[in-house]
Amino acid sequence: MTTGSVTTVFQHRFADELGELAVPWQAAEAPNPRLLLLNDELAVELGLDPEELNTPDGLRLLTGTRMPPGATPVAQAYAGHQFGGYSPRLGDGRALLIGELTDREGRLRDLHLKGSGRTPFSRGGDGLAAVGPMLREYVMGEAMHALGVPTTRALAVVATGRPVRRETVLPGAVLARVASSHLRVGTFQYAAATGDLGLLRRLADFAIERHHPTAALAEHPYRALFESVVVAQAELVARWMLLGFVHGVMNTDNMTISGETIDYGPCAFMEAFDPATVFSSIDTGGRYSYGNQPVAAEWNLARFAESLLPLLADDQDAAVALAVESLGRFAPTYSAAWSTGLRAKLGLSRAAGAVDEVDELAEQFVQFLRADRVDWTSGFRALGSAARGSAEPLRGLFLDLAGIDDWLARWLALAPDDSLLDRSNPLYIPRNHLVEDALDAATAGDLALVRQLVEVVRHPWTERPGLELYAAPAPEDFGRYTTYCGT
């Protein structure tokens, strides 16, 4: 299928198989589309030609204003608990699913637009997006991908030439996002709320085929689906925690069935370690603080279980008992992923020391970081130098020198692997002050800083000369960091 010079082959399985959850819709016109960033590597992975995407017809595809024959853009329906309060009808209020593409490895991937205009789910919003928040999603997705975290990724950010009114008038943009799918816990909540058991079953079968095919072979496939999502989310959140990442808006409509991170709105990487860290302007109660993320994820999964109850057993009490038992897998899975990851961040393989001894060392180091509000990323990264005989960079981060010296002696006695340390502790993350500088400049029309930031975070593990600025925490005068969702 073609649109002008751009050759694409879209499928529309979600729209065809789950029509009750899809409203056919068209994107708003983009008066003067201009490519800001294009992810060439991802384009090639999807079987797309980067040069063709950077043509007028390519930009029309990336903004949703001209579709290949047969493409079926839809706004997806879903519900969700937002900060604990249930909303029965959310959906894609400023987004469209263009369709699915088969990538070079044979995997089905969604192409989804964000900021493409009002839809039936807009609830009074304008359906648009500004340049800054869409570039933030690009930067964060690329950073998380490079850090080995399952994530949605940006294919492109295109300026639309349409102004967006927020606190001020800002330049508008559309984000073209790629995901394994956009099935969310909220999708299941919406389907369950319709009372249509057939729809719920079809949605579950769709999710099994798309993301967790081994569940189809289980004695109880829908219970196996639930357990697969529990495990995927427990491991995902453990990865966030190990990196100091704070998602900021862990509503059930932002929890994927695939186990990918989605929706980089009010997110950020923690610097000074404090479990109560919150970046979102609207999270005044700290519901989605750094330290609460595992609890929030488990709570969301309980809501997922509620939506699946009719598929787990005919008798509700029996279904609840099965769901509770399966949800019990979250805590040990998370704990194991956290412990394994923390051991790697200390450079200690399974053979290095007794488990209890290593766990004690890990807990003590985390407490040292907390007591002195040490930068999470820098604190762990400095362990590599200490393992190679240069402890001063690490010691210089702490006030309790006697305590850290004692800890270092016990840790060094276990012969930590310096190469494992460097592979487990990134040097470069999207530092909050640098993200803001880059987005401010891009909003004003200068993309140089955001391009450089993307290039840096795509290679987070290896030190490179001249990039010291990107490895340093924010200056003291940066102040408290607050992020916004961009709507």
Q: What's the total helix number?
A: 19
SSE class: alpha+beta
Q: How would you describe the shape?
A: globular
Helix fraction, binned, reads 40-55%
Strand content: 5-15%
Total beta strands: 13
What is the straight-line distance between the termini?
34 Å
Number of domains: 3
Low-confidence stretches: none
Neighbour order of strands in the largest sheet: 4-10-11-9-8
Mean residue pLDDT:
94
The biggest sheet amounts to: 5 strands, antiparallel
Radius of gyration: 23 Å
Describe the overall structure.
Strands 4-10-11-9-8 form a five-stranded antiparallel sheet, with helices on both faces. Strands 1-2 form a two-stranded antiparallel ribbon. It has a two-stranded antiparallel ribbon with strand order 3-5. A hairpin with a 5-residue loop joins strand 8 and strand 9 (108-114). Helix 13 runs antiparallel to helix 16. It has helices at 13-17, 40-45, 50-53, 56-63, 131-146, 185-193, 197-211, 221-243, 293-312, 316-327, 330-345, 355-371, 376-387, 392-395, 401-412, 418-424, 432-443, 448-457, 468-471, and strands spanning 2-3, 6-7, 22-24, 34-38, 74-76, 80-82, 85-87, 95-102, 108-114, 153-165, 169-179, 245-246, 268-269. The chain has 487 residues and is α+β, with helices and mostly antiparallel strands. The longest helix has 23 residues, at 221-243. It is 44% helix and 13% strand. The model has no long low-confidence stretch (mean pLDDT 94). The protein folds into three domains: 2-179, no CATH class; 185-338, no CATH class; 432-478, no CATH class. It has 19 helices and 13 strands.
